[in-house]
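Subgroup meeting minutes
Present: P.N., E.W., G.H.
Scribe: E.W.

1. P.N. recapped why we're keeping a running log of single-chain structure predictions: easier to compare across weeks, and new members can see raw inputs and outputs side by side.
2. G.H. added today's entry (210 aa).
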Amino acid sequence: MILSGIFKGSRLIAAAFFFLLIPLFCNANESYIFNDDKIIGEKAIIKINEMGTELFQTSNVSVYAFVSLSIGDVNKTEYWSNFTKELKEPYVLLIMLTNDRVVDILYSPELEGRFDKAKVLSPYPEVGSILPLLVLKKDYDNFTAAVLNGFADIVEQIAASYGITLKSAIGSSNRSTLAWIRFVVYGMFALAFLIYIYKKVQYRHAKKEK
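Output recorded in log:
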């Protein structure tokens, strides 16, 4: 009788433990990127899911990325309102529509102040983590880098706001990439300026000779 009672009790505990673990397993396998048009590279998707999972497990905040060519001719406000209703709250949704030239971020009101949307979407290389990567060349490699950088920036800012350090963070490599982009972009501006000055001097010199 006693053994039977213990056995039954242990089965109940095991069953309860299993059901408690279900949400964790479900979230571990959840995809944090909606990538219907296969724009983002597989390695980047794996990294995005890794960062998204760790942030959720440590802060209960879900960060997603929606990357597509276009959402078509629809009411944009209604579309995103319906879409975000299906996301776990609190959430952040990074949006990139390549053909529509749309880059945006939607988020739950309770995350106001947890990250700087204007900074993430800034076009300036010394600040922004997405748009500067699209300056040089708009192709799938750049889209992948831009989404990964933007996602990492958002995730790391939110984690920092909770006093959390993520093991999956790519902050240092992120900054190195953007430093290289700054160097190239500013180098292009400097080169263009020098060419302009050179042509102007050449024009004046040619005019004097006449």
